[in-house]
C-alpha cells in the first residue's frame, strides 16, 4: 500500500518533470531533493531528471546537479548522457558556470569519463578565473580517488597550480598536494616563500591545510632550533656537500635559524588572532613543533582564549593543552585558574581540566590546587569525584612535600557516604602506601576496620592486598580479616577471591601457626570455584606454599617469591606519550593513528640545501598589508624563474653563492623592503658586493591618481632579462584599494635609441657605478591616447634588488580624467613571439568599459649594460681573447672632422641579462675615430656600433 | 613511502564525507553526502554513545567506529554528525559544523529542526556551496547570500508564481577579491555603523563570597550598513586593557600591533568584529553578591533554602535581568519557596530551580526562602548545589573599556555612528 503510494507519487513527479512549465519542473526537483535529504530512494527518476540538465533556469539546473552527483554512480549509462552538456558548459564565458560544470563533472564517479575529467582539469588549471582554478584543484582530489593511476598526470597539474599566485587557489591546491603526493616535498621548495607570504590572505580553511603542510615541510628542511639537539647535530659529519671551510664554521658557531624557518614562524604568528579556532590550533601546533622553546609562550594566551568557545572546541583544545602541559608546565601555569572546573561543564571537559591541573601542580601551587580539588571531591558527578581522587593521588606521588597531607585527606574520604568515592580513595591509598608502608600501619588498621562497610570489589581487593603485603605491620588484624573472608568467600567477586587466596598464602608463610587451617580451608574453596582463573591460582599457590614431594625446589623460595618487595606503581598522566602524534590532529585526539595520518619526521641532523627555495622574486602582499606602509612592492615569480636562476649559477661559483645569499636576504627582509626609494638604496648597499655595485638597473615608480584627493602610489619594478621585461605592480595606499594588484608580465621588443649624453660619460670615466642618471623620462602613453591615463618611464640606473640580470625602470602613471581608473594592468599582445602571460586582473567584472593601449618601452642598448671596473691590462687581454671570433671594429666613416685630441677611451661592461662581456674602446685620432667593440652578442654589438656612429657624427660641431 | 601510498589509494580522501542531522529524540531528519553514499547505519555508533552519555552535552565530540570517525557538535537541540574517513584536524570539522549552524541561523532566523525541514532545498543548496568534495568552498555569509538568496515570504510567493529562482547567476564578487567578506556595489540611503561592546564576566565565587577566579571576556559586535568600500578605523581610549584579542579576518593585524587601532574594511551587515579578553590579573569588579544558605536535614527528608542577592560593584548602574539558576541534587523532589521579588520555578525532572528576579532594587533586596522536600529514605546529598547567576547591566563595560573614535576613509558621505555598551554575566558561578 505504502509502496504503491510512493510509486504513484513518483509517477506524479515524473509527469511534472516532463511538462513544459519551468515552475512545475522546479517544484518537482525541489520535492526530489527533499526525498534525497530524507535518505529516500529517488533513483528511478534518473531518466526524467537527467533531461533537464541543460535547463536555462539556473536553480533548476543546480538541483539537477545535486541529483546527478547523488545517483550518477548507480546509473552510469544514463549519466553519460549528461556529459556533453558539462563539456559545453566548461567553455561558457561565465566563470561560475564553468566552475560548477567542472565541480559536477568531477563529482560524477563514473570511471569511463576519467579521460574527459583529466582533460577538463588540465584546461581549468590554466583558466583565467582563479575561482575556476580553485575548482580544478578540488577536482584533482576527486579524480585521484576515482582513478589513482592518473597520479603522475595529476602531479603535473598540481605542480602547475602550486605556482599560482592567487590566494584563492593556494589552500585548495595544497589540499590536493596533501592527498595526492604528500611525499613530493620537492614540489614545495620553489613555492615555500610564496606560500609563507600569502598565508595571511588565504581563506581560513586553506590556512589550516597550508600550515599543517608547512609544519611537515619544515621538519624535513630545517635543523632543530632546540638547543640540546643543535649541540648534538654539530657532531654529525654528514654534511658532505658543504665545503670543508663551511663545516668548520658551522661547528664552532651557535645555532642560527634558517631565514626561511624564521619567515614561517613570523608569518604564521598573526594568525593566532584568527577567529577561526582551527587556524589558531594549527598555528599553535606549528609553534609547538617548530619554534625554539623560549618562543612557545606566545601561543598560550590564544589557546586559553579558545576555551571560551563551544564545548566541542574546548574538548579538543584541552586535550592538546594536556599534552603540552606535561612537557612544559611553565607555559600554562599563569593561567591555572582558567582550568578551574565549573559544575556546568560536561564530564569529559571536567576530566580534561582536572588532568591539566594535575599536570600543572608543583610545590608552589599545590596547596591552591588541593583546595580546589576538595571542592571537586564533593561534586555531584561521582565519576568526576573519583577522577579527582586519582588526581590527588598523582599529586601526592609527584610532590613529596604533600604526600602526607594528601594521604590524610584521602583517609578522611574513607568515611564518605558515597561508595565510589570511598572505593577510589582505597585504591589510591593503596598505591600511595606502597611508597612508604612502614609509617602507615595505622592507616592500614583504619582500612581494615572500614572493610565491612565497603562493597565495591576493587576497593575490597585493594584492602586485602594491603593486608597481605604488610601483614607483618598488622600481625593481629590480618588473621582476623582472613577469618571473616573465609566465611564470605563464596559470595565475593572474582578479584576479591583472588586477593583472599593471596592474603591466605602470605599469612601462611608469615604466621602459619594461626592461619594454617584457614588457609587450607580457603584453598579448598578455591579448588572448586566456578572460575577457572581462581582454580588455577589456588592450585598454583598450594603447590608453592605447602611443601610436598611434587612441588620440588620452588617451594623453598615461596617466601621470597610472594613477599618480594614490589615497586610502587607510577601514577602518571594518560597524556604521557600523546606527543608522539602531531598536535591538533585527529590521531592525537583519539590517541591512535587514524588512516591517512602523515608522520612528522624528526629534524634532519644537517639542513638540506637551502638554496632550493631560492626564487628570484618575492611574493605579493595583499589586503593585510595594504595599510602597513606608504608604498609597497608587489612581486610575483615569473615562469622564467627557473631559467634565470640557472643562468645565475653558471656565472661563477663565488658569484652564485653571493647571489643566492642576496636573494635570501631580500626575500626574508622583504617586508621591510622599502617603500621609498632612498630606503631601498640603503638596503641595497648592505646587500651588494663589489660586482653588484656596478649594476645600474632602474626602479620605476608609478603614481596613479584617482579623481579624489587620495593618491594611490603604485610601485612598479621592471626587471629585464634578455628582452623580456617583467613588470611587477604593487599598490599601496592609505586607503583601501579595490582594484587589487596584479602581477604583470610584459614582453617588450627592444628598439634602440641612443642616449648620447650618458653614454659619453660612461665611456670616458669607466665608472663602476652610474655617475650620471638622466632625469629625462620617456613617454610611454600620452594622456590623449590613453583616455586620461598617461604613463612615463625612465631608467634610474639603480641596482635591481630582485636579481642581477634585471634592469629597473621607474614608471609614473597619472590620471588626468575625472573618473577613477581601476584595474590597470598590462595585457601584452606581442608580435615578437616571446613568452607572453596574459594577466587577468582582480575585479575585472566591474569594469564596464575596457580600454587597451599598446605601448612599447625602448631602452637604449646602454641601459642593458653594466659597467665593470677592469684594469687596462685585463681589458687588452680580454679584447685579445674575444677578438678572434667576435669582434666588430670599424672606422667611422665620418666626413666631418672631429676636434678631439688623440686619446683612447675604454669602456668595459657586461650585459645585464647574461653577463657577457662587452668591451668598447674608442680611439680618437683626429679627424677619425676607431671604435672597437668586442662582445659575443652580435646583435648588441652591431646595435651599439650603429649608435656610436650616430652619436659621434651628431656631436660634431 | 610505499605503505603510505597504499593507504592513500584505499581511501577516498576527503575531509567531510557526509553530514547527518539528528534531533534530540534521536530522529535522523537530514542527510547529505559529498561523495559516495554512506549508509545511515553508521549513526548507530553515535546513538550508542548518545545513550551512554545520558546528557546530550556529555556526548564525546569525536567517536571512533571501525571504518569511520564521527565528529559531532550539539547545537540548538540538534546533533550535527559528520562522517570522516581519514586524518583531519578535528577542530577544522568542528569549526565548520558550527559555521553551518550559524549560516542556518543567519538564513532562517533560527536553527531548528522545523526551519531546516521547511527550507530543505535551500539547506541543500547551501551545503552544496559550502563544501566541495568535503573541503570548505564558500563559508562567508556575504558570498553565500549572493549565490543563494535567503528566503523571505514575499520572495517565495513571487517565486511560486513566476518560477523565478533563488539562485544567483554570477559568481559573487567577494569570492574573487582579497576581501571575500564584502560584496561590491553596496548602496544604502542611510549610512550607519553601530558597535555593541558586550562584556561577560566569568567568575567563580566561593561560599564566603570571595572571588576564586574572575575574568572578563568581551566582544564587539558590529552592524555596519555603509555604501561603497568604506575603510574604518576604530580606536580605544584605553587599548592597553586588552590582554588578548582575536579578530574578524577583515581587521589588519599589523595596524593593531603597531598602533593599537582596529583598521578594517567591514563586511556588509552584522558581524563580530573582535573578541577580547581581560585577564584574571586585573581586578575584576563583581557586580552582585549572593548570600545563600542551602541545607539538607539528616532526618525528615527535607531541606531549607535561603538566597538573597544584593548589589556590589555596579558602577552606579542598575542590574537587570537577574536570574539565579540552581542545579539541585537528584534527591530533591519539590520546592516550596517564597520569593519577595520575581518568580521561581522548579522542574522536578531536570532538577533545575530557576528564580527570575528581574531588576535589582538596592533598597529592597530580593530574597527566596522556603523548604525543599527530598525523596524519602535517600541519604542526604553530600554537596550543596552551586548557583549560576545571570544578569545584565546596560551602558556599562565593566572593564572600563571605551571606544574613542571611529573614522572613515575611502568614502565621502558622513555615516551615522553609534556605540553601545552592555555587561552580562558569563559563566558566573557561586559555590555553596
Automatic annotation (TrEMBL), chain A:
Compartmental location: Cytoplasmic vesicle, Clathrin-coated vesicle membrane; Golgi apparatus
Organism, scientific name: Cyprinus carpio carpio
Location, primary (coarse class): membrane
Family: Belongs to the adaptor complexes large subunit family.
Residue runs in coiled coils: none
Keyword vocabulary terms for this entry: Cytoplasmic vesicle, Golgi apparatus, Membrane, Phosphoprotein, Protein transport, Transport
Bilayer topology annotation: Peripheral membrane protein
Domain AP-3 complex subunit beta C-terminal positions: 733-858
PANTHER family: ADAPTOR COMPLEX SUBUNIT BETA FAMILY MEMBER
Gene Ontology CC, one term: clathrin-coated vesicle membrane
Segments of skewed composition (Acidic residues): 625-637, 650-661
Taxonomic path: Eukaryota, Metazoa, Chordata, Craniata, Vertebrata
Region (Disordered): 620-690
Protein name, entry field: AP-3 complex subunit beta
Top-rank taxon: Eukaryota
UniProtKB/TrEMBL annotation, chain B:
Example GO BP: intracellular protein transport
Transmembrane spans: none
Record localization: Golgi apparatus; Cytoplasmic vesicle membrane
Keywords: Cytoplasmic vesicle, Golgi apparatus, Membrane, Protein transport, Transport
Gene3D superfamilies: 3.30.450.60, Mu homology domain, subdomain B (2.60.40.1170)
Annotated GO CC locations: clathrin adaptor complex; cytoplasmic vesicle membrane; Golgi apparatus
Domain of life: Eukaryota
Start and end residues of each MHD domain: 190-431
Biological function: Part of the AP-3 complex, an adaptor-related complex which is not clathrin-associated. The complex is associated with the Golgi region as well as more peripheral structures. It facilitates the budding of vesicles from the Golgi membrane and may be directly involved in trafficking to lysosomes.
Name of the protein described by the UniProt record: AP-3 complex subunit mu-1
UniProt source species: Cyprinus carpio carpio
Taxonomy of the source species: Eukaryota, Metazoa, Chordata, Craniata, Vertebrata
Amino acid at each position: 500500500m505504502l509502496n504503491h503510494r510512493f510509486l504513484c507519487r513518483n509517477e506524479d513527479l515524473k509527469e511534472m518533470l516532463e511538462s513544459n512549465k519551468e515552475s512545475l519542473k522546479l517544484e518537482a526537483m525541489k520535492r526530489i531533493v527533499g526525498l534525497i535529504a530524507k535518505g529516500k530512494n529517488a533513483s528511478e527518476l534518473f531518466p526524467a531528471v537527467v533531461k533537464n540538465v541543460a535547463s536555462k533556469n539556473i536553480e533548476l539546473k543546480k538541483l539537477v546537479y545535486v541529483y546527478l552527483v547523488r545517483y550518477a554512480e548507480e546509473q552510469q549509462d544514463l549519466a553519460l548522457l549528461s556529459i556533453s552538456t558539462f563539456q559545453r558548459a566548461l567553455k561558457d564565458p561565465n566563470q561560475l558556470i564553468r566552475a560548477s560544470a567542472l565541480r559536477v563533472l568531477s563529482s560524477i564517479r563514473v570511471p569511463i569519463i576519467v579521460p574527459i575529467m583529466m582533460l577538463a582539469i588540465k584546461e581549468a588549471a590554466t583558466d583565467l578565473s582563479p575561482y575556476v582554478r580553485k575548482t580544478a584543484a578540488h577536482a584533482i582530489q576527486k579524480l585521484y580517488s576515482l582513478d589513482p593511476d592518473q597520479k603522475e598526470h595529476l602531479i603535473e597539474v598540481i605542480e602547475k597550480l602550486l605556482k599560482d599566485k592567487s590566494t584563492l587557489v593556494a589552500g585548495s591546491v595544497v589540499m590536493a598536494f596533501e592527498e595526492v603526493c604528500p611525499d613530493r616535498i620537492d614540489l614545495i621548495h620553489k613555492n615555500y616563500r610564496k606560500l609563507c607570504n600569502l598565508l595571511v590572505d588565504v581563506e581560513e580553511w586553506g590556512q589550516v591545510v597550508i600550515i599543517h603542510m608547512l609544519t611537515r615541510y619544515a621538519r624535513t628542511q630545517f635543523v632543530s632550533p632546540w638547543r640540546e639537539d643543535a649541540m648534538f647535530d654539530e657532531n654529525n659529519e654528514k654534511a658532505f656537500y658543504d665545503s670543508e671551510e663551511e663545516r668548520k664554521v658551522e661547528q664552532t658557531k651557535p645555532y642560527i635559524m634558517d631565514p626561511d624557518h624564521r619567515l614561517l614562524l613570523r608569518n604564521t604568528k598573526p594568525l593566532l588572532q584568527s577567529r577561526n579556532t582551527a587556524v589558531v590550533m594549527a598555528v599553535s601546533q606549528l609553534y609547538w613543533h617548530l619554534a625554539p622553546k623560549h618562543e612557545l609562550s606566545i601561543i598560550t594566551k590564544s589557546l586559553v582564549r579558545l576555551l571560551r568557545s563551544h564545548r566541542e572546541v574546548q574538548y579538543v583544545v584541552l586535550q592538546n593543552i594536556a599534552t603540552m602541559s606535561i612537557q612544559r608546565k611553565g607555559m600554562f601555569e599563569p593561567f591555572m585558574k582558567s582550568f578551574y572546573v565549573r559544575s556546568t561543564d560536561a564530564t569529559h571537559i571536567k576530566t580534561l581540566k582536572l588532568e591539566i591541573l594535575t599536570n600543572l601542580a608543583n610545590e608552589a601551587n599545590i596547596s591552591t590546587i588541593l583546595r580546589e580539588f576538595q571542592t571537586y571531591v564533593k561534586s555531584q558527578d561521582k565519576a568526576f569525584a573519583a577522577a579527582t581522587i586519582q588526581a590527588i593521588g598523582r599529586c601526592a606521588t609527584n610532590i613529596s612535600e604533600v604526600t602526607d597531607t594528601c594521604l590524610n585527606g584521602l583517609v578522611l574520604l574513607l568515611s564518605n557516604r558515597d561508595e565510589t568515592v570511598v572505593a577510589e580513595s582505597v585504591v589510591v591509598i593503596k598505591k600511595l602506601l606502597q611508597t612508604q608502608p612502614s609509617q602507615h600501619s595505622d592507616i592500614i588498621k583504619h582500612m581494615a576496620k572500614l572493610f565491612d562497610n565497603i562493597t565495591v570489589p576493587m576497593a575490597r581487593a585493594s584492602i586485602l592486598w594491603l593486608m597481605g603485603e604488610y601483614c607483618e605491620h598488622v600481625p593481629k588484624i590480618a588473621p582476623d580479616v582472613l577469618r571473616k573472608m573465609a566465611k564470605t568467600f563464596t559470595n565475593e567477586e572474582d578479584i576479591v577471591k583472588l586477593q583472599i587466596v593471596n592474603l591466605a598464602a602470605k599469612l601462611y608463610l608469615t604466621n602459619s601457626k594461626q592461619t594454617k587451617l584457614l588457609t587450607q580451608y580457603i584453598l579448598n574453596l578455591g579448588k572448586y570455584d566456578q572460575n577457572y582463573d581462581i582454580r588455577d591460582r589456588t592450585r598454583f599457590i598450594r603447590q608453592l606454599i605447602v611443601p610436598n614431594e611434587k612441588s620440588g625446589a620452588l617451594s623453598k623460595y615461596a617466601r621470597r617469591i610472594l613477599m618480594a618487595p614490589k615497586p610502587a606503581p607510577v601514577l602518571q598522566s594518560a597524556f604521557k606519550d600523546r606527543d608522539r602524534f602531531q598536535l591538533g590532529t585527529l590521531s592525537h585526539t583519539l590517541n591512535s593513528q587514524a588512516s591517512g595520518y602523515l608522520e612528522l619526521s624528526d629534524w634532519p641532523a644537517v639542513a638540506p640545501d637551502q638554496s632550493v627555495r631560492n626564487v628570484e622574486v618575492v611574493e605579493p602582499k595583499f589586503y593585510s598589508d595594504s595599510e602597513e606602509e606608504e608604498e609597497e612592492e608587489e612581486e610575483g615569480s615569473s615562469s622564467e624563474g627557473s631559467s634565470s636562476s640557472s643562468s645565475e649559477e653558471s656565472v661563477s661559483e663565488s658569484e652564485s653563492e653571493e647571489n643566492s645569499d642576496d636573494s635570501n636576504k631580500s626575500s626574508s627582509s622583504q617586508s621591510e623592503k622599502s617603500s621609498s626609494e632612498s630606503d631601498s638604496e640603503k638596503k641595497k648597499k648592505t646587500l651588494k658586493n663589489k660586482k653588484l655595485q656596478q649594476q645600474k638597473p632602474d626602479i620605476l615608480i608609478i603614481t596613479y591618481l584617482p579623481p579624489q584627493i587620495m593618491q594611490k602610489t603604485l610601485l612598479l619594478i621592471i626587471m629585464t632579462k634578455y628582452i623580456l621585461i617583467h613588470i611587477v605592480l604593487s599598490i599601496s595606499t592609505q586607503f583601501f584599494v579595490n582594484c587589487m594588484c596584479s602581477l604583470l608580465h610584459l614582453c617588450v621588443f627592444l628598439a634602440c635609441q641612443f642616449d648620447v649624453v650618458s653614454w659619453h660619460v660612461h665611456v670616458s670615466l669607466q665608472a663602476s657605478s652610474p655617475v650620471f642618471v638622466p632625469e629625462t623620462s620617456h613617454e610611454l602613453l600620452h594622456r590623449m591616447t590613453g583616455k586620461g591615463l598617461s604613463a612615463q618611464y625612465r631608467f634610474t640606473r639603480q641596482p635591481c634588488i630582485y636579481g642581477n640580470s634585471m634592469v629597473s625602470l621607474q614608471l609614473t602613471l597619472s590620471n588626468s580624467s575625472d573618473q577613477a581608473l581601476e584595474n590597470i594592468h598590462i595585457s601584452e599582445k606581442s608580435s615578437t613571439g616571446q613568452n607572453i602571460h596574459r594577466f587577468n586582473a582582480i575585479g575585472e567584472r566591474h569594469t564596464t568599459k575596457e580600454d587597451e593601449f599598446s605601448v612599447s618601452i625602448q631602452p637604449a642598448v646602454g641601459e642593458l649594460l653594466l659597467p665593470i671596473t677592469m684594469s687596462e691590462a685585463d681589458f687588452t687581454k680580454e679584447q685579445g681573447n674575444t677578438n678572434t671570433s667576435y669582434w666588430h671594429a670599424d672606422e667611422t666613416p665620418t666626413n666631418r672632422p672631429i676636434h678631439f685630441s688623440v686619446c683612447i677611451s675604454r669602456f668595459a661592461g657586461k650585459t645585464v641579462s647574461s653577463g657577457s662581456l662587452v668591451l668598447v674602446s674608442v680611439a680618437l685620432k683626429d679627424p677619425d675615430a676607431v671604435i672597437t667593440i668586442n662582445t659575443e652578442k652580435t646583435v648588441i654589438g652591431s646595435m651599439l656600433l650603429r649608435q656610436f656612429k650616430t652619436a659621434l657624427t651628431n656631436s660634431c660641431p | 613511502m610505499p605503505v603510505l601510498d597504499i593507504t592513500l589509494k584505499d581511501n577516498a580522501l576527503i575531509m567531510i564525507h557526509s553530514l547527518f542531522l539528528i534531533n534530540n529524540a534521536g530522529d535522523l531528519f537530514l542527510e547529505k553526502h559529498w561523495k559516495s553514499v554512506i549508509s545511515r547505519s553508521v549513526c548507530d555508533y553515535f546513538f550508542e554513545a548518545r545513550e551512554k552519555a545520558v546528557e546530550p552535552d556529555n556526548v564525546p565530540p569525536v567517536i571512533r567506529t571501525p571504518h569511520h570517525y564521527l565528529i559531532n557538535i550539539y547545537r540548538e537541540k540538534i546533533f550535527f554528525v559528520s562522517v570522516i574517513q581519514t586524518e583531519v584536524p578535528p577542530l577544522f570539522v568542528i569549526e565548520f559544523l558550527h559555521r553551518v549552524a550559524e549560516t542556518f541561523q543567519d538564513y532562517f532566523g533560527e536553527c531548528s529542526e522545523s526551519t531546516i525541514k521547511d527550507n530543505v532545498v535551500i539547506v541543500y543548496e547551501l551545503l552544496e556551496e559550502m563544501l566541495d568534495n568535503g573541503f570548505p568552498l564558500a563559508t562567508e555569509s556575504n558570498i553565500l547570500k549572493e549565490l543563494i538568496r535567503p528566503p523571505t515570504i514575499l520572495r517565495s510567493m513571487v517565486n511560486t508564481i513566476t518560477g523565478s529562482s533563488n539562485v544567483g547567476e554570477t559568481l559573487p564578487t567577494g569570492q574573487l577579491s582579497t576581501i571575500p567578506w564584502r560584496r561590491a556595489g553596496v548602496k544604502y540611503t542611510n549610512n550607519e555603523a553601530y558597535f555593541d561592546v558586550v562584556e561577560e564576566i566569568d567568575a567563580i565565587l566561593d561560599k564566603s563570597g570571595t572571588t576564586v577566579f574572575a575574568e572578563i571576556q568581551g566582544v564587539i559586535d558590529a552592524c555596519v550598513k555603509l555604501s561603497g568600500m568604506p575603510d574604518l578605523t576604530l580606536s580605544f581610549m584605553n587599548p592597553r586593557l586588552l590582554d588578548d584579542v582575536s579578530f574578524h579576518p577583515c581587521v589588519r593585524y599589523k595596524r593593531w600591533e603597531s598602533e593599537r587601532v582596529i583598521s578594517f574594511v567591514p563586511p556588509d551587515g552584522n558581524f563580530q568584529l573582535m573578541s577580547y579578553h581581560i585577564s584574571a590579573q586585573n581586578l575584576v569588579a563583581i557586580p552582585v553578591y549572593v548570600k545563600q544558605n542551602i541545607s539538607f536535614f539528616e532526618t525528615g527528608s527535607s531541606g531549607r533554602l535561603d538566597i538573597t542577592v544584593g548589589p556590589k560593584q555596579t558602577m552606579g548602574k542598575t542590574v537587570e535581568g537577574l536570574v539565579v539558576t540552581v542545579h539541585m541534587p537528584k534527591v530533591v523532589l519539590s520546592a516550596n519557596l517564597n520569593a519577595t521579588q520575581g518568580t521561581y520555578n522548579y522542574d522536578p525532572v531536570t532538577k533545575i530551580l530557576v528564580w527570575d528576579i528581574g531588576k535589582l532594587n538596592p533598597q529592597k533586596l530580593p530574597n527566596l526562602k522556603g523548604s525543599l522536600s527530598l525523596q524519602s529514605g535517600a541519604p542526604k546529598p553530600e554537596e550543596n548545589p552551586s548557583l549560576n547567576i545571570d544578569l545584565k547591566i546596560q551602558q556599562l563595560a565593566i572593564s572600563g573599556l571605551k571606544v574613542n573614535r571611529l573614522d572613515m576613509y575611502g568614502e565621502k558621505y558622513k555615516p551615522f555612528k553609534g556605540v553601545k555598551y552592555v555587561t552580562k554575566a558569563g559563566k558566573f558561578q557561586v559555590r555553596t
